[in-house]
C-alpha cells in the first residue's frame, strides 16, 4: 500500500501564489492554542507537502507514539497503524470526497465538513474505531484544498465507514454509498426541545429522577423521551447519545 494513494489527483497542489502563502501567517499558533485549551485530538494536513503540519498531544490518534513521531512519519503513519481494509476504504473516501468538492462553488468550499469512521491501532496494539472530521482551512486561488484541519474522536458507531458531508447552516447531510461511490442527500437529524433538555441534564450528571423534577414530568415520561432519542440517533444508552449529539453538533 502506498500512502500517496491517499492524495487525489483531483486536488493536486503543485504551485502556490504569493497570495496563497500570505493567508497562512500565524495560523498554526492559533491551532496549537486551541488544542491546549480543549485537549482535543487535532492535526493539520498540508496537501502540497503531503505531510502533517501539526499534531496535538492528545493520545487518541497517536497509537502510542509522541506527536513529534507521528508528524515525522507523516502519511506513512496510516500505512502502519490502519488495517488494510480500512486503508483501502480511506482511498475511496478521498476520491469521492474530492469529487464532491469539485462540484461546489469555490467560495463555499470552506463551509463543508466531511466525517467518517475507521480503525486505528492504539498503544496496546488493539484496534479502536475513531471518528475523523476534516474541513478546509486554506484554499489555493484555483480552489484546491491546500491545508485542512482534522479532529479525531471515539466513534459511536460499530463499524468503519459512515461517511457524511455537511454544510454549515444547511439542513441537509450527504451520505456516501461506499459500494457505488454515490452521494445521497437527506435531512439532518433534529432533536426536540425536550430531547435537548434531557441530554443537557444528563451531561450535568442528573439522574432520571432529578431530571423529571427539573422539567416537571413523570419518571416514565423521561424514560419515554430517552427511548425516542435512542431510536432517532441509533444508539443504545445515554452515554452514546451524548457523544453522538456533541460530535454532530446537535446540542
TrEMBL record:
Residues in HTH luxR-type domain copies: 184-249
Keyword Amino-acid biosynthesis: no
SUPFAM superfamilies: C-terminal effector domain of the bipartite response regulators
Alphabetical list of InterPro entries matching this protein: Sig_transdc_resp-reg_C-effctor, Tscrpt_reg_LuxR_C, WH-like_DNA-bd_sf
GO MF, one example: DNA binding
Biological process annotations from GO: regulation of DNA-templated transcription
Keyword check for DNA repair: no
Keywords: DNA-binding, Transcription, Transcription regulation
Domain of life: Bacteria
Protein name: Regulatory LuxR family protein
Organism listed in the record: Sphingobacterium siyangense
Amino acid at each position: 500500500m502506498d500512502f500517496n494513494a491517499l492524495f487525489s489527483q483531483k486536488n493536486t497542489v503543485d504551485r502556490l501564489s504569493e497570495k496563497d502563502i500570505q493567508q497562512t501567517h500565524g495560523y498554526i499558533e492559533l491551532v496549537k492554542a486551541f488544542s491546549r485549551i480543549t485537549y482535543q485530538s487535532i492535526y493539520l494536513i498540508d496537501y502540497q507537502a503531503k505531510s502533517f503540519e501539526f499534531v496535538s498531544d492528545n493520545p487518541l490518534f497517536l497509537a502510542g507514539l509522541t506527536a513529534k513521531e507521528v508528524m515525522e512519519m507523516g502519511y506513512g503513519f496510516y500505512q502502519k497503524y490502519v488495517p488494510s481494509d480500512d486503508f483501502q476504504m480511506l482511498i475511496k473516501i478521498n476520491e469521492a470526497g474530492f469529487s464532491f468538492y469539485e462540484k461546489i462553488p469555490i467560495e463555499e468550499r470552506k463551509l463543508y465538513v466531511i466525517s467518517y469512521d475507521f480503525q486505528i491501532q492504539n498503544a496496546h496494539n488493539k484496534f479502536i474505531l475513531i471518528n475523523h472530521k476534516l474541513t478546509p482551512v486554506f484554499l489555493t486561488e484555483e480552489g484546491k484544498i491546500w491545508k485542512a484541519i482534522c479532529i479525531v474522536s471515539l466513534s459511536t458507531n460499530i463499524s468503519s465507514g459512515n461517511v457524511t458531508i455537511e454544510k454549515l447552516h444547511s439542513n441537509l447531510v450527504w451520505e456516501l454509498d461506499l459500494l457505488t461511490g454515490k452521494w445521497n442527500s437527506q435531512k439532518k437529524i433534529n432533536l426536540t426541545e425536550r430531547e435537548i433538555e434531557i441530554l443537557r441534564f444528563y451531561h450535568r450528571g442528573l439522574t432520571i429522577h432529578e431530571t423529571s423534577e427539573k422539567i416537571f414530568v413523570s419518571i416514565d415520561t423521561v424514560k419515554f423521551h430517552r427511548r425516542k432519542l435512542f431510536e432517532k440517533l441509533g444508539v443504545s444508552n445515554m452515554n452514546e447519545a451524548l457523544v453522538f449529539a456533541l460530535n454532530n453538533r446537535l446540542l
